[in-house]
Amino acid sequence: MYKQKCTTGKVFVISGPSGVGKKTIIDEILRNKTLNMIMSISMTTRHMREGEVDCKDYYFRTRKYFEKEIENNAFLEYSEFVGNYYGTPKKYIYDAIGKGQNVLLEIDVVGYKNIRNNFDHGGIVSIFIAPPTLAVLRARLMNRNTESHDDLIDRLAKAELEMEMRHAYDFVVVNDKVDDAVREVEAIIMKHIMP
Ligand code: 5GP
To answer: Could you say which of 52, 88, 151, 195 would form a disulfide bridge with 57 (CB–CB 3.0 to 4.6 Å)?
Structure first.
């Protein structure tokens, strides 16, 4: 009997408090071509930071546009984070995994809770990146200098709540030394994409 060989990509979620170093880790993961990983591009209503590029870092859109897309049921999940919407467009992910590509989502803990139970395309592997301590996180965020004072306070308060959610994830990786954290995340991904 003819049996069709069918490979579907896998979806990975990375979450963690603002300033924990997710971007550095993700950049390394995307550089590793053996992982066959692409990044899901989220849509957001927040302002564009210096150096960010529309349609690459995010689809930067107005609240009006975002709310229209909610009505159109265009998101796999979305949530509001310190006053701005963030959402994962469905189409991009379904197209990618259909072509056998693995997809990485960088979303917050609320977004993860929203998709954890209603994504039935082979399940999701979730990784929470944690700082060694909250004091280290505070120092990193202040050094980053990308947020206003009020936004920084909000992000730190949110970080404490997010840390409490880390046990809902399949894996927790502490980002103390970034090279070690990258190696740990790579090992988790490899384990789940090997046939
Ligand atoms: P930032 O403003 O620093 O780029 O992101 C703020 C937070 O939004 C981060 O915790 C990030 O993981 C989260 N985030 C980014 N994209 C999405 C998304 O599509 N959905 C959800 N739920 N959160 C997102």
So the answer is: 52
Residue 3 inside a domain? The answer is no
Residue 70 to residue 165: CA distance in whole angstroms: 25
Boundaries of domain holding 64: 11-193
84 part of a folded domain? yes
What per-residue confidence (pLDDT) applies to 3? Answer: 42
Cβ of 162 closer than 6 Å to ligand 1, yes or no, is no
pLDDT of residue 2: 42
106 CA from centroid of ligand 1 (Å): 6
Ligand 1 mean position to 3 CA, how many Å?
A: 41
pTM here is 0.87
pLDDT digits (tens, 9 = 90+) for 136-160: 998 888 887 777 888 888 888 889 9
Atom of ligand 1 nearest to the CA of 42: 19
Q: Is the beta carbon of 13 within 6 A of some atom in ligand 1?
A: no
Give 39 Cα–ligand 1 centroid separation in angstroms.
13
Number of structural domains (the chain) is 1
56: exposed, middle or buried (C-beta count within 10 Å: 0-12, 13-18, 19+)?
A: exposed
What is the CATH number for 89? 3.40.50.300
